[in-house]
Design brief:
The complex is a heterodimer of chains A (587) and B (148). Chain A has 587 residues and is of the alpha+beta class. Helices cover 51% and strands 20% of the residues of chain A. In chain A, the strands form five sheets. Chain A has a five-stranded antiparallel beta sheet with strand order 4-3-7-6-5. In chain A, strands 9-8-12-11-10 form a five-stranded antiparallel beta sheet, sandwiched between helices. In chain A, strand 11 and strand 12 form a beta hairpin. In chain A, helix 3 runs antiparallel to helix 4 and helix 11 runs antiparallel to helix 12. Chain A is rod-shaped, with a radius of gyration of 63 Å. Chain B is built from five helices and five strands. The chains are: A alpha+beta (587), B alpha/beta (148). At the A-B interface, helix 10, helix 11 and helix 12 of A face helix 1 and helix 5 of B.
Chain lengths: 587, 148
C-alpha cells in the first residue's frame, strides 16, 4: 500500500472514529444517534437512487431525442430525394428535343401541348406552365382561364431560377390561377441549342402531396413532422390542411435555426400552443427547406417516463426496505441499551439486596449474641437460688415444697438447653457452607466414640458400614450425625440390648445414608411432624428433649441440597435416611 | 506493695445475683476468706492498679486470681483483660474469664489477649458450684503463682 492509499485509509479511520464518537457516548447510543444512524443508512440509498435516476433520465431523454433527430433526418432525406426527383423530371422535360425546339421557335402553345400528359403520368405535378425570361406566363397545361399574359416576376420561383440560372425549388405560395391552390414550384430554364435560356418551365406541385410524402415516412416514432420552406412558411403540417391558410412559422425558434442551416434537437416553446415542445430539426440541404419533428413535451417521452416511473417505484421499494432495516437496527440497538440498563438496574438491586442481607445477618448475629449471654444469666439465678433454698432451708420446706422447687429448677435447666439449641439452629442457616470432601465413615466413627462414652452401663451393639465419602461442611455434618446417633441411643434406652446400624444404599445414582435402631420407634401417621421445631412424638417424661435436634438435622441436610426422611413402626425401631447434595453430593 | 496480699480472689461481676451465687459456691468450698468484689471494669482496674493508675502508688493490689466477667458496664471485660495483660506488673496475675457467653469470638479474643482460662457459667447450679470449686482449688492451691 503506497503512501497515498495509507493516507486515505487513515483519514477514513479518523472519519469513522469521529462518526462513532458522535453517535456513542459512555452510556451507549446518544439520543441523537438513532436519527443520525437512520440518515446514515438511508443516505447511500437516496444518493444512489438520485444518481441512477438522473443518469437514466439523461440517457432515455437523449435516446428519445436522438430518435426524433433520426426521424427528422430521414424526413429531410426523403424530401430531398423527392425534390431531387422533381428537379430531374423538370430538367428532363425541359431538355426534350422537340420541346426545346418549339420553345426556341416561340411555338409555346405547341410546346406545352407536348407536356399535356405529364400531370397524368406524374400525378404530383398538378400543372405546368411556360414563362418568358421576364416572368410572364404564356402557356400552361392544363390551361386555366385568365392566366395567360400575367406576370409573375415577383414570384420566388422566378427570382430563384433567375438567380440560380438553373433548376430551383420555390417557396410555397397561393397561386393566382383558379382554383387557387397552395403550391410550390419547381422552375427550370429551358435552353436553346446553344445553351442560352429562352424560357422558364415551371412545375407546380400541390402541397397535399408533400403532406402525403411526409406522413409516409413516419411509422413508429411519435411526433409530427412539419415541413417548412426556405421562408419559414409551413409547407406541410399533419394538423393543418394543406389548402388552408399559409402560416408563417418563423416565430418558432427551431425554424429560425433551420433557416440558418442548423440542425439539432431541443425543447422549445411552441408559438402555436404556447406549450413546451420537443423539436428535432434538420434542413433539407440544397433546397433551403427544413424538417421539424415536433411533439408536446408532456407526450414526448412515454417510454422514458415509464422507465423512470419503474425506477422510482423500484427505489421506493428499496428505500422502504432500507427504512425497515434501519428501523430494525435502531430497534435492536435501543433494545440492547434497554437490556443493558435493565441489567445495570438489576445489578444495582442485587448489590443493594446483598448489602441488606449482610446487614440483616449482622443484626441477627448481634441478637443471638445477646440472647446467648443475657438470657442465661436469669436462668442461672433461678436455678442457683432455688438450689440454695433447697440446700440450706430444707428444714422449713415440706416434701411437697421441695418437689415444687425441683420442678422449677428443672425448668430453668430445660430453658437453658432450649436456648442453646435454638441458637445453634439459627446459626446453621446463616453460616456459610464449606464444601470439602468429608470422610463420612471416619466422622461417624468419631461421633459414636464420643457419644458412647456417655452411655456407660448399657448393652449396645453397633454395626458401622464403610460409608463412602461426600461433599459437604464437616462441622455441620458432624452435627447431623451427633443428633441422629444421640436420638438412636436415647430411644433405645428401654431395650435390654440396643442395636444400632449405620450404613448406606445406592439408589438411582445417589448415596443414601441410614441409621437404624431397634428402639421405641414412632407412629408413621405423625411422620410429617418429625422434623418440625419443638415438635415431639413422645412424652417429655419418657424421653427428654427439646424437639430441635431433628429440625437441625433437616436444616443442615437441606442446605447441602439433600433430603432426609424416616420410616418406623411403633415399638419396632426407626430408620432415618438422608442424602447429601443430591446427584453430585457424593462420588 | 504487701508481701502477702490479703485479697486472694478478685471477682469482677456486675450481676448481683451472679455475685451472690458465686460467693455462695465459694463459701461452700471454704474459699471465701479473701474475696474482693468489683462491680465494673473501672473498679477492677482501680483495685489492681490503685488510684494513681498504672504507676506505683498506694492502693495497688495483687490477687492470686482474678475471676472476670466479660459483659461489664463502664469498662468492658476484654478491655480490663487487655490492660491487665499488657502491664508487666500485672501480666502474671492469672485471669479466669467466667462468663455466660459461649460465643466463639469471645473465646478466641480472650485467648489472644492472654487469658489463662475461659469458663462458661453453667445454668445448673450444681455444675456451677463444681466449676467454682475446681477453679478455686486449682488456682489458689495447686497453681504456683509468680512472686512479684
Amino acid at each position: 500500500m503506497n503512501l497515498a492509499m495509507s493516507g486515505r485509509v487513515l483519514r477514513l479511520k479518523q472519519l469513522a472514529t469521529r462518526v462513532l464518537e458522535l453517535l456513542y457516548d459512555d452510556d451507549g447510543p446518544k439520543r441523537l444517534a438513532p436519527v443520525a444512524l437512520f440518515l446514515l443508512i438511508l443516505s447511500p440509498v437516496l444518493a444512489l437512487s438520485a444518481l441512477t435516476y438522473k443518469r437514466t433520465d439523461r440517457h432515455l431523454t437523449a435516446f428519445a431525442l436522438s430518435q426524433r433527430q433520426s426521424l427528422a433526418h430521414v424526413a429531410a432525406v426523403t424530401v430531398k430525394e423527392r425534390f431531387g426527383r422533381l428537379v430531374d423530371i423538370a430538367e428532363s422535360l425541359a431538355s426534350r428535343v422537340r420541346f426545346r425546339k418549339l420553345v426556341a421557335e416561340g411555338e409555346w402553345a405547341d410546346a406545352i401541348e407536348i407536356l399535356a400528359s405529364v400531370p397524368k403520368d406524374f400525378p404530383f405535378v398538378e400543372r405546368l406552365f411556360l414563362a418568358d425570361l421576364a416572368g410572364t406566363l404564356w402557356a400552361d397545361t392544363p390551361a386555366l382561364p385568365d392566366i395567360r399574359g400575367k406576370n409573375f416576376s415577383d414570384r420566388d420561383w422566378y427570382r430563384g431560377v433567375s438567380r440560380n440560372r438553373g433548376p430551383y425549388v420555390s417557396e410555397v405560395y397561393r397561386r393566382a390561377a383558379r382554383p387557387q391552390y397552395n403550391v410550390f414550384a419547381v422552375a427550370t430554364p429551358v435552353k436553346d441549342g446553344s445553351g442560352a435560356p429562352v424560357a422558364i418551365l415551371v412545375l407546380q406541385v400541390k402541397l397535399d402531396f408533400l403532406l402525403q410524402w411526409i406522413n409516409a415516412t413516419n411509422s413508429k416514432t411519435p411526433g409530427w413532422i412539419v415541413l417548412v420552406d426556405q421562408r419559414g412558411t409551413i409547407a406541410a403540417h399533419p394538423r393543418l390542411s394543406p389548402q388552408g391558410e399559409l402560416i408563417d412559422y418563423r416565430a418558432s425558434v427551431p425554424v429560425q435555426k433551420l433557416l440558418t442551416g442548423e440542425s439539432g434537437v431541443g425543447v422549445f416553446v411552441s408559438p402555436m400552443t404556447n406549450g413546451e415542445q420537443v423539436v428535432a430539426f434538420e434542413p433539407v440541404s440544397e433546397y433551403g427547406w427544413g424538417v421539424l419533428v415536433e411533439q408536446p413535451y408532456g407526450e414526448a417521452f412515454p417510454a422514458r417516463d415509464k422507465a423512470l416511473n419503474s425506477l422510482i417505484i423500484a427505489y421506493a421499494v428499496i428505500g422502504l426496505f432500507t427504512c425497515v432495516l434501519a428501523y430494525l437496527i435502531l430497534h435492536f440497538m435501543a433494545e440492547q441499551k434497554r437490556v443493558q440498563n435493565e441489567i445495570r438496574k438489576l445489578n444495582g438491586q442485587l448489590t443493594q439486596k446483598s448489602a441488606e442481607t449482610e446487614a440483616a445477618n449482622k443484626e441477627l448475629e448481634a441478637f443471638s449474641y445477646s440472647v446467648s449471654h443475657d438470657l442465661r444469666a436469669p436462668l442461672r439465678a433461678i436455678d442457683g437460688f432455688s438450689r440454695i433454698l433447697l440446700d440450706e432451708h430444707a428444714a422449713s420446706l415440706s416434701k411437697e415444697g421441695q418437689r415444687l422447687l425441683k420442678v422449677a429448677r428443672e425448668n430453668a435447666v430445660n430453658m437453658g438447653q432450649l436456648i442453646d439449641e435454638l441458637l445453634t439452629f439459627s446459626r446453621l442457616s446463616r453460616q456459610p457452607l464449606g464444601k470439602t470432601r468429608v470422610e463420612t465413615a471416619e466422622l461417624a466413627r468419631q461421633v459414636f466414640q464420643d457419644l458412647r462414652a456417655q452411655e456407660n452401663g448399657r448393652q449396645i451393639e453397633v454395626s458401622l458400614a464403610e460409608l463412602p465419602p461426600c461433599q459437604g461442611d464437616p462441622r455441620l455434618l458432624r452435627q447431623v450425625f451427633v443428633n441422629l446417633v444421640a436420638n438412636a441411643f436415647k430411644y433405645t434406652r428401654k431395650r435390654p440390648v440396643a442395636r444400632i446400624e449405620v450404613g448406606f444404599e445406592k439408589k438411582e445414582g445417589e448415596i443414601v445414608y441410614f441409621i437404624k435402631d431397634n428402639g421405641v420407634g414412632f407412629d408413621m401417621r405423625y411422620a410429617d411432624k418429625l422434623f418440625r421445631v419443638f415438635q415431639r412424638l413422645h412424652r417429655a417424661e419418657d424421653y427428654e428433649g427439646t424437639g430441635v435436634g431433628l429440625a437441625i438435622v433437616q436444616r443442615v441436610i437441606q442446605r447441602h441440597g439433600g433430603r432426609v426422611w424416616a420410616e418406623a413402626d411403633v415399638d419396632r425401631g426407626a430408620t432415618f435416611y438422608f442424602t447429601v447434595g443430591g446427584k453430585h453430593g457424593c462420588s | 506493695m504487701a508481701v502477702a496480699d490479703p485479697v486472694e480472689i478478685l471477682l469482677v461481676e456486675d450481676n448481683p445475683n451472679d455475685v451472690e451465687l458465686t460467693l455462695h459456691a465459694l463459701k461452700k468450698n471454704n474459699l471465701t476468706n479473701r474475696i474482693e468484689i468489683a462491680r465494673d471494669g473501672a473498679e477492677a482496674l482501680e483495685f489492681v492498679f490503685g488510684n494513681g493508675g498504672c504507676s506505683e502508688g498506694r492502693g495497688e493490689h495483687r490477687p492470686k486470681v482474678i475471676l472476670l466477667d466479660l459483659k461489664l458496664p463502664k469498662v468492658d471485660g476484654l478491655e480490663v483483660l487487655t490492660q491487665l495483660k499488657s502491664n508487666p506488673k500485672t501480666r502474671s496475675i492469672p485471669v479466669v474469664v467466667l462468663t455466660s457467653s459461649r460465643e466463639e469470638c469471645d473465646i478466641v479474643k480472650s485467648y489472644e489477649l492472654g487469658v489463662n482460662s475461659y469458663i462458661v457459667k453453667p445454668v445448673d447450679f450444681e455444675q456451677f458450684v463444681t466449676a467454682v470449686r475446681q477453679l478455686g482449688l486449682y488456682w489458689l492451691l495447686m497453681n504456683q503463682a509468680a512472686t512479684p
